[in-house]
Write a structure and sequence with these properties.
Helix content: under 10%
Number of strands: 8
Strand content: over 45%
Order of helices and strands: EEEEEEEE
Structural class: mainly beta
Radius of gyration: 12 Å
Distance between the termini: 33 Å
């Protein structure tokens, strides 16, 4: 598990089993599970199996499994998902597509 703690900014490409973002990440990410905490920000491209967004994601997000956008979550960009769940208050803007569809 990789944790980008509050106040930490990471830039570059990373690959891990689980990534928790409490601070800020800019770059390309590949992980089995992604959690962006309410104070966290990820900008870039991410290929993930399952994701839970409480903070901010900007860029291209490909989630082959389950994508959850919590009430504090904000997504902007291009997204693909296997399944999606958006809580009241959660925001998704941009191009949204079911994973595997053209």
């Amino acid at each position: 598990m990789l944790v980008a703690g509050a106040g930490v900014t990471l830039k570059g490409n990373m690959q891990c089993d689980m990534l928790r973002v409490e601070g800020s990440i800019e770059g390309d990410v590949k992980a089995r599970k992604l959690v962006i905490s309410s104070g966290g920000t990820l900008m870039g491209t991410a290929e993930i199996e399952d994701a839970e967004i409480e903070g901010i994601f900007e860029g291209t997000l490909i989630v082959s499994g389950h994508l959850v956008v919590r009430s504090t979550g904000r997504l902007a960009g291009k997204f693909q998902y296997g399944e999606i769940e958006i809580e009241r208050g959660g925001a998704v803007t941009g191009e949204v597509q079911l994973h595997g569809q053209v």
